[in-house]
Please model this.
Amino acid sequence: MYAAQIYRSVLPFVFVPVFLTVLGAETYSVISFFLTMVALLGLLDLGFSSAIIKMFSGSAHSPLKRLEATFLFAKFLKYTFLIAAAIFVLFTLTKDFLAYSWLGQSTDKAYVSTAILYLGLTIALTYIKQFLLCFLTSIENHVKVALFNIFGPTLGYGCGYLFLNLPSDLPQYFQILAIVCAAELLVLFFLYLRYHRESYSYEHSLSEIRTSFRDLLKPTFMLGAISLLWVVVSQSDKFLASYFMVPADFTYYQIGSQLSGVVAIMAIPLIQYLMPRLNRLKASGQMEEYSRTFLKPFMLFIFLSWNAVFAIFVNGQFFLSLWLSGDENILGVAEQSKYLFLAVFFSSVMQFIFLIIFSFNLLQQHLKVYMAYSLFAVLGCFLIAWSSPDYIGFWCFIHSFLFFLVWGGWTLSRSFKNPSSLFVVFFVVLPLMLYVSESAIKYFGFADSLLYYFSVRLAIFMLFGLVFLKFQKIVSSKVVLRWV
Model:
């Protein structure tokens, strides 16, 4: 899973400079808009992904319940096709407005409108694909999910590179993405149908199966509201940036957002692994195992991600000079990236904390708090975007940090005994030490040489790693789940 996430995130590092050179910053904003729309699909998730995981993982102990979950998921897929069709029709009707009014492209670029049409088709197919991948995650078939995360992006970027030689080739690029997505859907349907047939091996009559779509809707209401608000908060900055920023600045912002995905690389596999497993451990009452299963990955993520965050925050221009060409591109992306990395870090920490809320059915309180937080974050983002769009990334860091400090801190304090050692070590001592060491590397000139930088940085990482292992044992022995 980690290999797939790393590979999937490395591909943009390879191809973004090439596409940026071919298209220019203005036209590349169309691809940036596509990435924003993919992220905004979460608005139409409405909590169904989490409900599907909960439905399958919670039924692992009963063959009949698992069979009922399989039939219910089949009913749900029918609705995803209708919504996907509506998405494509919407993009078809608004392609000219999106191309020339919203994204501010020159009207003489007629191909942009056609590109938006195929962009919409890709978005519609992706909407269906995300639920089939969620199905594989819910039955803990993580290897196949990882393989899709490798082959899909490889074909998309690789074939897109072959056909993207001029800005006018942009429609062909999105055609390729749509074809790759359609091929992935066919394979995913085959896997689902095979699992569906295997479910009949259980000796149960079809008359015993009781499924109603309301069985899926009941646990989905609060999850849907939380999911909707999360997408609004996490994507409102990019959506507003696409309108208030000039196209070139929006390109830098979107590339900075892609770079901050390095933090997500470390979080996503752990989240995918933990969500069904923690829910299963809670359902079976294995609370001591639950505590150990949660704490070790949680602390590992904090340690690894702090290293990445401060490397970019202090020496971001050094890294980008190895990747992007042109001082303007390097400076623009570096300024956007430094605070976006911090924002994604605290947002990812809250995803870990949400796993506790999710598995212990504490969603009602979380929803109330998240509604207030969402209003604060989005309203502030709008005001910043309207008055000073260059500070959107800084605002994302501020509101994500405050949300973690207040609600995340309270949740951990309520869920675990003696959480103060965890807070002090991983959110005060460790970040201060890493920031000082990274600043020292820059001050003494080690960041001027690739060999010197990575030699010194590796030594610091190994030293801090030994300290982390020591504190991890201390924290694990002191921090105990209150529900044990």
About this structure: The longest helix spans residues 63-102. Confidence is low (pLDDT under 50) at residues 203-207. Residues 88 and 121 are 5 Å apart (CA to CA). The radius of gyration is 23 Å.
